[in-house]
Design brief:
By secondary structure, this protein is mainly β. It has one domain (1-29). It is 0% helix and 51% strand. Strands 1-2-3 form a 3-stranded antiparallel sheet, with no helix packed on it. The protein is elongated, with a radius of gyration of 17 Å. The chain starts with a strand and ends in a 12-residue tail after the last strand. It comes from Mycolicibacterium vaccae ATCC 25954. This is Acyl-CoA thioesterase. InterPro entries: HotDog_dom_sf, TesB_C. Residues 2-28 form the Acyl-CoA thioesterase 2 C-terminal domain.
Length: 41
Amino acid sequence: MAAESRGLGTGHFFDRQGQPLATVVQEGIVKYFPGRATASE
């Protein structure tokens, strides 16, 4: 999910029997710099 320069990702970990072990969530901020050179340029 992403909106207003923010992103949110979730993940789930399960054991070999399919039982849930953990849920993880990470939030990030996306910044866009138009006109800046990239490393490949």
